[in-house]
């Protein structure tokens, strides 16, 4: 019986596919195993299930002499040294299907909340100084009729575009590769260069994967190209944005607002971001509903079963 080490405490409802067929070990009485605990246990396991916040590096893979599969509990896989896993003959999988709709839903919620200042109004109404009830004071920005620029028009980017189109937005996008005409026509989306997108979009959503090439792809140069009324949303990965440059752009009002669900050194947040009124901060919560998190565990489990038994398709990243 193959042995599966799950680094994070997941609810049993999502692990039924593994029951009785695999020997599963996961934390009890605490939320996760520490790195040191994983290093101590990993020599006995064929499968490791890290969460998106647990970094799986060379040391863990070297210690895991029996490792055959790393079944990531997340769609992004920048928490895994995939190149080294490939060298070691270890298969890495992710979960793109269960994360698509909830992440797009959350991204659009952040777009609405930042543009229309929903969280700002709520926060200010609870404070002694309050908020102005005047007709024009502290006004937000419209969404209908505005242009959404999507950086990374994959599964999540397209799910976000579908919501934006339904709300009357125009779509431009930048991708590593241009999409087919059929997909573009679904959203009436126009392919543009990254610089063109940054200069013209009213709302900009980052939905690309985190790679060596995309590290800090949004920095001072890119931020200062945006409109002063631009809203920037990141539900992808935090290391793709220079947080210091973003905080400065927000402080100087070079851009109008930002909404961030991911950060470069989670759970640490660049301190200046915490002091600004024109940024919404959420704790990597794009998929954080009970139903969606259980669905993530189901998809992760089916990657394991599919890998060993061929019953389900496997979402491989290497």
Account of the protein in words:
This protein has helices at 35-41, 58-63, 82-88, 96-115, 118-125, 155-166, 181-187, 194-200, 220-225, 243-251, 290-309; strands at residues 3-6, 23-25, 47-49, 69-71, 91-93, 147-151, 170-174, 189-191, 203-206, 231-234, 257-260, 279-281. The chain is of the alpha/beta class and 318 residues long. The chain folds into two domains: 3-94 and 289-309, NAD(P)-binding Rossmann-like Domain (Rossmann fold, 3-Layer(aba) Sandwich), CATH 3.40.50.720; 100-281, Rossmann fold, CATH 3.40.50. Strands 8-7-6-9-10-11-12 form a seven-stranded parallel β-sheet, with helices on both faces. The chain has a five-stranded parallel β-sheet with strand order 2-1-3-4-5, sandwiched between helices. Helix 9 links the parallel strand 9 (203-206) and strand 10. The mean pLDDT is 97.
Question: How would you summarize the topology of this molecule?
Answer:
Blueprint: E1 3-6, E2 23-25, H1 35-41, E3 47-49, H2 58-63, E4 69-71, H3 82-88, E5 91-93, H4 96-115, H5 118-125, E6 147-151, H6 155-166, E7 170-174, H7 181-187, E8 189-191, H8 194-200, E9 203-206, H9 220-225, E10 231-234, H10 243-251, E11 257-260, E12 279-281, H11 290-309
Parallel strand pairs: 1-2, 1-3, 3-4, 4-5, 6-7, 6-9, 7-8, 9-10, 10-11, 11-12
């Amino acid at each position: 019986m193959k042995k599966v080490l799950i680094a994070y405490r997941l609810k049993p409802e999502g692990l039924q596919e593994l029951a009785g067929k695999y020997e599963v070990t996961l934390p009890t009485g605490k939320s996760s195993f520490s790195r040191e605990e994983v290093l101590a246990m990993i020599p006995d396991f064929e499968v490791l299930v890290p969460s998106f916040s647990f970094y799986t590096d060379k040391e863990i893979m070297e210690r895991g002499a029996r490792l055959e599969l790393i079944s990531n509990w997340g769609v992004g896989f920048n928490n895994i040294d995939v190149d080294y896993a490939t060298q070691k003959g270890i298969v890495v999988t992710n979960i793109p299907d269960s994360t698509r709709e909830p992440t797009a839903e959350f991204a659009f919620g952040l777009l609405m909340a930042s543009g229309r200042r929903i969280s700002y109004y709520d926060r200010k109404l609870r404070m002694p100084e309050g908020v102005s009830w005047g007709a024009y004071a502290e006004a937000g920005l419209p969404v209908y009729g505005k242009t959404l620029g999507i950086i990374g028009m994959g599964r999540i980017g397209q799910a976000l575009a579908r919501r934006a189109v339904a709300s009357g937005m125009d779509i431009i996008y930048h991708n590593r590769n241009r999409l087919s005409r059929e997909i573009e026509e679904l959203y009436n989306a126009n392919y543009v260069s990254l610089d063109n997108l940054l200069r013209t979009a009213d709302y900009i959503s980052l939905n690309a994967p985190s790679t060596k090439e995309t590290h800090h792809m949004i920095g001072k140069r890119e931020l200062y190209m945006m409109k002063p009324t631009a809203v920037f949303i990141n539900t992808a990965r935090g290391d793709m944005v220079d947080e210091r440059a973003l905080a400065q752009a927000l402080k100087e009002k070079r851009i109008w607002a930002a909404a961030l669900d991911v950060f470069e050194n989670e759970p640490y947040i660049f301190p200046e971001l915490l002091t600004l009124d024109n940024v919404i901060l959420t704790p990597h919560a794009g998929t954080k509903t009970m139903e969606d998190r259980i669905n993530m565990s189901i998809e992760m489990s089916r990657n394991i079963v599919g890998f060993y038994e061929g019953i389900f398709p496997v979402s491989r990243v290497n």
